[in-house]
Amino acid sequence: MTSQREGTGRTALVTGASAGIGMALARVFAAHGFDLVLTARRTDRLNVLAKELQDEHTIQAHVIGADLARVTACGDIVGALDQKGIRIDVLVNNAGYGIERLYRESDWDTHRDFIQVLVTSPLELTHRLLPGMTERGYGRILNIASVAGLVPGSAGHTLYGGAKAMLIKFSESLHSEQLGTGVYVSALCPGLTYSEFHDVNSTRAGMSRIPRFMWLSAERVADEGYRAVMRNDTICIPGTQYKLISGLARLLPMRLAHRIENMAARNATRR
What we know:
By secondary structure, the chain is an alpha/beta fold. The protein has one domain (11-269): Rossmann fold (3-Layer(aba) Sandwich), CATH 3.40.50.720. 50% of the residues lie in helices and 13% in strands. It has ten helices and seven strands. The protein has helices at 20-31, 43-57, 73-84, 108-136, 160-177, 197-200, 204-207, 218-231, 240-251, 254-269, and strands at 11-15, 35-40, 61-65, 90-93, 139-144, 183-188, 235-236. It has a seven-stranded parallel sheet, sandwiched between helices. Helix 1 runs parallel beside helix 2 and helix 3 (73-84) runs parallel beside helix 4 (108-136). The longest helix has 29 residues, at 108-136. The protein starts with 10 loop residues before the first strand and ends with a helix.
């Protein structure tokens, strides 16, 4: 069983830590004794969170403002870490958002930035930090994916499921590559989770029609994700309902599964 202070002397970097699952994960890692590096665009929120976690858990919490849509952001983050002399033992690739419109309705710059944040940045941060973890014989990489990456795609949020599926496959392959090195890699695949995600992409009204039993708390998702990466589970799907949904999607004929997913998506997002 994992010690309550598993993280003493170690540091976790959490992207997108200003709200939702990212903030909940920062709290979980701090509770287990990890020092933190918190990144997001909203540094005012990060500063408040950093002070709270330092006071509550007697850890060090550093804030690095970053917009991962910028191609130089990952290099800037790692440069700031080097300048401060901070060694990263845990990487939590959490930053993300959704684009509600149909693919043809958004300009390419919007899609380019989305891919940069949800795909390129997690891969680049991992590539930059993984060698040090491997050399030291200890590392934890938790990639926040989604059940959307395990079920058929549907209209709207066109790139989201594909981006999360890519992150899941990447995590599976990297998990296998790192066996025996002391570096654990897991993909966390939550379903609907209470957070600001649906406020940011203006789908809150549609989401409110979904039954309460389908929703997870960010705290539960974060706790299960923490335990999964500490056990070196390849994939973690919080909630029995989402384990069943993702399992059923794999068993049903592809055409039927796709039809069901499209119906569910239309019901959730209609106005």
